[in-house]
Each structure stands twice: as structure tokens, then as C-alpha cells.
Specification:
globular; Hypothetical protein af1432; binds guanosine-5'-diphosphate; 10 helices; binds fe (iii) ion
Amino acid sequence: LAYTGTYTAWSREGIVSEVKQQMKTSRFEHVLRVEQCAVRLAEKYGASAEACSLAALLHDYAKEHDVEEMKGIILREGMDPELVHFGSEIMHGPVGAYYAEKKFGITDEEILNAIRQHTIGGIEMSLIGKIIFVADYIEAGRTFKGVEEARELAGKNLDEAAYYKIEKTIIHLVKKEVPIYPGTIYVYNSWIQRKA
Ligand code: GDP
Ligand code: FE
Ligand code: FE
Ligand code: FE
């Protein structure tokens, strides 16, 4: 998949090698599997494969970055200050979107939002946003209980697959007895209210 220059001046190969340097090999391989899955979903659901490839390659860009550095970016850029209480798990999406814009020159809001929202989802998600959110959850290396059902849903209805991830993630967090970021609850509420 050669990039056309529509979304960034970087080549796909340039991005791949830059991303590879930012993380351990196992995570880099996850990123490549998310890309593969996202491109497949893009073809199925009629999204831009190039936009989905780019969002997928960059979605976990900041995941292993220094937490204090991430907090600095969040506060300086006026992002939700609550984010800093939730660690890299929650901060790496919004901070990744920041790098997508500042370092890779991406201005397309659907791509930036897809990166920003990939962990918790969004009250409003574009097609690209849903694709990245779901691809991150069902990529070929995921093995958790329920992933097969999520894959089946993704083959039939992207909204149902996204809702499945939203619901299962909340259940998983409660069972793990970890704090839930308020935005995660807002997203859950908006999706369940729309469903009813
Ligand atoms: P990854 O970056 O590919 O590992 O996956 P994600 O970005 O989707 O998720 C990162 C982690 O954040 C996962 O372990 C999620 O279960 C976790 N997570 C999602 N929402 C919340 C939340 O509200 N609170 C906490 N503490 N963790 C969350
Ligand atoms: Fe992530
Ligand atoms: Fe993920
Ligand atoms: Fe990921």
C-alpha cells in the first residue's frame, strides 16, 4: 500500500520504521496486525484504506513514551486534565494524536480522532474511528475470551462490534478492580442510550 501524499508527506515505509523505533517488537507486530485488519475492514465497509493504514500505524505511537512527558503534553495542549490520573493506558491515544499532527503533519480530523479515541471509543465516531477501535480489539494476535464473537460481529456490523468492545472493556475493568476513566463511562452511556 503506497501512500499518495493525501494525508501526510511521509511514506508508509518511513512511518513504519519510525514507529518500530518507538516500541518493543511485540507491540510493533501488534501495530502491523492492526493495520492489516483495519485495511481489510476499510475495504469491507468502504473507508479509505490509506487513511485506515495511517491511523493504525500511529495508534499506539505514544504507548511506551515517558509518562511525565505525556502529562506535560496533555496539560500544555489543554487536553482533559483528568487524563493524567490514568496512566499511559489512557493517555497514549490523545498523545498519539498530538504526535500524528505535530510530527507527521496529519490534519485529517477523522484520522486524528481515530487515534485519539482508539482506547475508550467516542460518543461520536467516524467510520475510520470505528474501524481502528475494532481492529485494535480483534487483530489476529488477540486471544482473549470473546474475541471470536467480536470478529464475527465485525464481519456483520461494525457498530455492534464497537459496542461489544465498549461493553466488554467496562466489565473487564470492573473485574480487574481498576479505576475507570470518566470518558469511558460517558462513551458507554451514549452507546447504550442509542441502542435502547
Ligand atoms: P493497546 O494499546 O493495543 O494495548 O490497547 P488499548 O489502547 O485499546 O487499551 C489499553 C488498555 O487500557 C487496555 O488494557 C484497556 O483495557 C485499558 N483501558 C481502557 N479503558 C480504560 C479505563 O477507563 N480505565 C483504565 N484504567 N484502563 C482502561
Ligand atoms: Fe492503544
Ligand atoms: Fe488497543
Ligand atoms: Fe493497540
